[in-house]
Amino acid sequence: LVCAADATPVLGRTFPDFGKMYHVKGVLSLPHSKIEEPFEAWYDLDGNRSRIDYRNSTVRTFQIGNDLDFGAIYKITPVIPPSDIKCFQLKGTKDDPIEPQQAIPDAQSFEFEKMEDCKDAQCEVWKKVTEAGHKKNTYRLWVTRGEAAYSPATPHRFEMEGFNSLLGSHNDKYSIEYSDFCTQSEPDVFTPPAGFTCEEFPDPPEEHQILANPFQDYVNTHPVSHAHRMFGPFKEKFNRQYESEKEHEERENLFL
Predict the structure, then answer these.
(1) pTM score, whole prediction
(2) How far apart are CA 219 and CA 160, in angstroms?
(3) Can you list the domains of the chain with their CATH numbers?
(4) I want to staple 172 with a disulfide (CB 3.0 to 4.6 A). Which of 13, 153, 162, 180 is the partner?
């Protein structure tokens, strides 16, 4: 995240900055799948660490950039049978080190769109559009500001809507509603619980990033996500071939 002092004005407004440390709660909604996933997140840029919990903290993920040689992700999660709790570990590499995971999108590449009523306040709406092939994704972020100059912004909502021009349909949509945002966090929340022997994630390897850090694709505004990159290995593994580009797009949407 950019610090406020470095923020660049856009139409007289600085990009929303959420600070180098924060704690926030929220709900991730996937309407096509009828899923609503509550979460709680802690972020500490200077400490090179973050944590995101799901399902009332029954699933906990820790992204610790200073562990081992290139950082590590730890995931504490129930497994079958339900009484068992396991720890899985994903080690960073020189080419792909582990970094703190933001729970709020980096708004430096967004553009100010408009002011809009939200949650009994006037929100700034920031917008970003990305295109890759036939896919066009539109992202919007709703924030409010404090009265003091360069005070951190407060996130209220983030929304993504994807459109596929080849299929002529909206192929993806999700939103995040934020609450209880504050720019402080207790240092001990970033320490994974003791007493676990962490093991590697199960195969296939290309799914490890998604299993270890499922939140990354939802706040990453890059047009090609980790989930999209998994479709290539899937096609190779099962020797999938498609008769047309349109069928390829349809199969990829089903895969995701």
Answers:
(1) 0.80
(2) 9
(3) 4-255 (2.50.20.10)
(4) 162
Question: How far is C-alpha 39 from the geometric centre of its chain's CA atoms?
Answer: 11
Provide φ and ψ at 159, rounded to 5°.
-140, 140
Percentage with pLDDT > 90 across the chain: 52
Residues 161-193 have pLDDT tens digits of 988 765 555 567 899 999 999 998 888 999 999
Pairing of strands 13-14, 59-64: unpaired
- The H or E element spanning position 150 is none
Residue at token pair 């040689």: 69
Q: Are 198 and 88 in contact (CB under 8 A)?
A: yes
The number of residues in the chain equals 256
Can you give the three-state secondary structure of 188-217, one letter per residue?
Answer: HHHCCCCCCCCEECCCCHHHHHHHHCCCHH
**Which uninterrupted H or E stretch holds 152?**
none
